[in-house]
Design a protein that fits this description.
single chain; mainly alpha; Hypothetical protein af1432; GMP Synthetase, Chain A, domain 3; 3-stranded antiparallel beta sheet; 3-stranded mixed beta sheet; 8 strands
Length: 507
């Protein structure tokens, strides 16, 4: 047993010694490998440095070679550029010399012209003196005489040319205009009813009449104060007459009195209560009237204030013509005319509907309905066609679009239709006098007569002073002056008549 243990120990010891010896041998080999690797690295580093030096030398050699080549090319270009600059300078100097020579020639010519001008003026003065001595006229008098003669000759030529061109234009345009207007008028037929200045309300009996008057006239005074109209009782039997220029007040007054008569309770407090109720109802109906109107015309996106004012035109009249009826007719006619001329139908209707919108406010604020309407439409963002139509339909400015021109034509058609408007006698007579005075102020006019209710004026001209061509020119001049100075609805026809009468006596 001891022998086995000893042998085992010996074996283990030998194994340990063998392991140690093997490790030593391996470490020695690794050191050898490391030394060999370091030597190889030094060799590679040396070779790399050698190659780097060779590459630098070669690159420097190539760079020097390319630099010398480019330098030679640059020197060559500089020589070529210098030669070119010298050529251009030579040309500029040559042109400069030519310009100087031309300038000298021009100065010589100017001096010659000045001397010729002075000589010409001297000769003209001599000729003028000779002519003045021969004719007995000064130079100014001779010039004025020549100008007058030239004017007369040119006026005759212009009148003849104008007559021919005017006749040709009238033949061509009148046919087209009549065609457009006739189509528009025949496609729209509006209803006309002249507005009166009074409303009559029948009374059922004398008791109702007494209630309206009240004790010591208390009720009728309260009615007139609250309603703002004149109430007349007694002129027509069993009838109350309401008089006012304001259609809106008159309509509210009529409805208020009818409600009071139907209710039977008539006293100041009740009058004010019924009036406020009726007025609120009318305001709602006015807005609905405006909405229905723009809906019927196919118009959208209109400000609510304008819609209300459109409905309010129902209670506004001009020369007896209802403003809303006139506005509707103008809108429809303008749409038809614009469609035939290639314009925008909806814009034309919109402009026609709003062309007299200022009339809805003339009872509430001062100023012309044109300015009031234009300012309001500008403030509420209406398009330029509408603003131009408002100004143009009364001649405040020229129509700049097809739509505004169509509105002007439609407005004239609506106003000029027989029976559409009623005029005050005084204004009618004053307009007729103004028209006749304009015609008789022309040279060569013997007399002038306004006929056809002031819609036509016939001018009698002296045949010895006015020829056929000048009569055409005279008619145009009179018509233009009437347009500028006279306010009138529709149009006025100017007819110039010349006649030569020769009289002889046999004795």
């Amino acid at each position: 047993m001891e022998t086995v243990i000893i042998v085992s120990v010996i074996v283990i010891a030998v194994a340990i010694v063998s392991f140690i010896i093997a490790n030593k041998l391996n470490s020695a080999k690794f050191d050898i490998y490391i030394e060999q690797a370091k030597a190889k690295a030094k060799v590679i580093e040396h070779e790399a440095n050698t190659l780097l030096h060779e590459a630098k030398a070669k690159a420097k050699q190539d760079f020097d070679k390319e630099y010398r080549r480019l330098q030679k090319k640059l020197d060559k270009r500089e020589l070529e550029l210098e030669a070119l600059i010298e050529d251009e300078l030579h040309k500029i100097n040559k042109d400069k010399q030519i310009i100087q020579n031309r300038k000298s020639e021009i100065e010589a010519l100017q001096q010659g012209l000045e001397s010729q001008k002075k000589l010409y003026e001297q000769k003209v003065k001599k000729v003028s003196k000779v002519l003045e001595n021969a004719s007995g006229l000064t130079q100014k008098e001779a010039v004025d005489l020549m100008i007058d003669q030239t004017k007369q000759e040119q006026r005759a030529i212009i009148a003849s040319m104008f007559r021919k061109e005017y006749k040709l234009a009238k033949e061509n345009t009148q046919k087209e205009i009549n065609n457009i207007l006739s189509h528009a008028v025949t496609r729209f037929a509006g209803e006309f009813a002249a507005e009166r200045l009074i409303n009559n309300i029948p009374l059922p009996d004398e008791e109702a009449k007494g209630k309206i008057i009240g004790k010591e006239g208390r009720n009728i005074k309260a009615l007139e104060f609250c309603l703002g109209v004149d109430i007349i009782i007694g002129d027509i039997p069993n009838t109350i007459t309401i008089s006012s220029f304001n259609l809106y007040r008159r309509a509210i007054s009529t409805r208020t009195i009818e409600e009071l008569l139907r209710d039977g309770r008539i006293h100041p407090a009740r009058i004010e209560e019924v009036y406020n109720s009726v007025k609120n109802e009318f305001d709602k109906n006015i807005t609905k009237e405006g909405e229905d109107t723009i809906l019927a015309l196919g118009i959208t996106d209109m400000h609510k204030d304008l819609v209300h004012l459109v409905g309010k035109l129902r209670y506004r009249a001009s020369y007896g013509q209802n403003a809303l009826a006139h506005t509707l007719e103008v809108a429809n006619l303008a749409g038809l005319i614009a469609a035939q001329l290639g314009g925008d139908t909806i814009k034309a209707r919109r402009a026609g509907l709003l062309h007299d919108i200022g009339k809805a406010l003339t009872h509430d604020m001062p100023g012309s309905h044109v300015d009031i309407g234009a300012d309001l439409c500008k403030k509420l963002g209406e398009p330029e066609e509408v603003i131009n139509a408002i100004y143009a339909h009364h001649g405040h400015e020229e129509a700049t679009t097809i739509e505004s021109a169509a509105v002007c034509a439609a407005d004239a058609l609506s106003a000029a239709r027989p029976g559409a408007r009623r005029e005050v006698l005084e204004s009618f007579l004053r307009r007729v006098e103004e028209i006749e005075a304009i015609a008789t102020s022309k040279v060569g006019v013997v007399s002038a007569y306004a006929i056809n209710a002031g819609r036509e004026i016939r001018v009698i001209a002296n045949a010895q002073l006015v020829n056929d061509d000048e009569s055409v020119l005279m008619a145009t001049e009179i018509a233009k002056e009437i347009e500028e100075k006279v306010q009138y609805p529709g149009e006025i026809k100017v007819s110039v008549i010349r006649e030569l009468r020769a009289t002889g006596y046999a004795r």
